[in-house]
Structure formats: C-alpha cells, structure tokens
Amino acid sequence: MGIWQVDFYRCPLQDPAGKPLWELVICDTVGSFTAREFCPQAQANAAWLTAQLQQFFHLTEKPSRLQVFRPQSLSLLQTACQPLGIAVEATRRTSALKQLLRDLANQYRALPNYIGQTEPYDPIALDRPPPVPLPENLWGDRWRFGAIAAQDLIDAFQHRPIPIREMPESLQPIKLGIASTVPIPGVIIDGGRRSMRLAQWLQQVNPVALSYIPGDPDGLILEAGLVDRWVLTTFDDPEVIEAARSFRSRQQMSKGLHFLLVQPDDSGMTYTGVWLLQG
Known about the structure:
five-stranded mixed beta sheet, alpha/beta, 7 helices
C-alpha cells in the first residue's frame, strides 16, 4: 500500500453562483498518479472528503497513509480518513504535491471563473507565526556548529545505540546527489542532564530545518511541525557569528541538508538524538 500526498483548500475559482470553490488535489510521492475534484464551499466537510477519497480507490491502490502539509486541511482529512482506516501524517515534505499545486496555479489564470487577485496566487504559502523562545528548562550546557563529510555522515550515526534517530533515506546524501567530499553542516548540543528531555521534546515538535538569522542579536531558528518556529539560541560573539555564516554557506553547498545532534557531553561516546534536516 502506498502513500498519497493530499491537499484540500480554497482555490482562486468560483462556481456559477459566484461562491468560492475548494479543491481536493491528490498525488503519489513521485507524481505518477494524480487526481483532483472541486467542491462547493457549502459541502467542504469531512463527509464529502470520505466519499471522494473512496471514489479514487478504483484508480489506483488504496493508500496506507496520507501526507498533508497544510494545517487547515489536517483536521478535516484526519476525520475523513478514520472510517477508511488510513493514517494521516502531518509533514512539510510533500514535494510532489507542492509541484503539482504550482502547476495547477498556472492553469487557473486562464479559466473564466478565476478570481483575480492583487497579489500573485501562491498555492503553497502558509501563515507562519513569529518564532518563540525554546523553553528554558530544555536548553543544554553548550552548543556549537560542526560539519561531517557527506561520505561519513550516515556511518557516523547509523550503527550507534542512539535512542532517538530520524535519518530518512530520502535525506541521505547519496539520494540527494551530494558529492562525498561536501561537508554537511550541523548543530551539536551538549545537553548534560537535560539531554534526554531536550531530545524527547525535539522528537515531539518534529524538526524540519535550522536557519541562521542575522539580527540584533543574531539567532538560530528551528523550523518544526507544519508552521512552528522556535528560537533555539541568540548570540553576538564575533566568532560564533562567523561560524554561523559558515554554517549557512555549507547549507547552500549541501542542497540544504544538515543535521542536529543532541548528546550528554562532548566525549563522543554517547549520543541522545540525531536528526537529518533539509531547508
């Protein structure tokens, strides 16, 4: 059983009565299967979704899981999938669906029922809240930037007894076509006695990417979940700022791939959690 990537949201089209239309858009993870259906706003509910999803089962294999990137679609699809026995995963990593939505957005403008907008329509734009500080009781003893050669990244963590490990195959350097000698940047946190508590919290919020944001002071932002943002730390030390700039530069060289490592200390003997991220 496969995976479908699914979106259900208002589109910039209207019905003959001038009412907004919603659109259900579906594809598999490689975009080889696609399906779509418009829905009047008055019928945009979980019952309509359940019935429509069932109708698509005859086109291809019933999926075992739906991947959803839009917060506004998540609860509706979770409710719709309960009677179907299909799991729903909230994730930003829906590249096939997002490309399909971009392609469809280009087609909308040529349709007679297109609702003209002053701003260009972006089908994957989401409202992003301002970042909030990391809970004080979670932060560790020390942190630093680091890097590991692409050829050594997986071996460094794959066979170690790490309690929390998120290293999806799709984010491994070889899958992304990254040369073996390219340094993969990362952030390393020595959590001390808070190491496990921090790693468990990170697992709960579902890390997506780390970003260096220049400012006054500079900061390190964690993108997590579907739209959540956290301030991991701020800094104004010139050496740390230079290391942050190197981190950002290496991210550009590594196609956005980077890692987050939580460990009790810097002995290199024990790791608590590791995540491969891409932004």
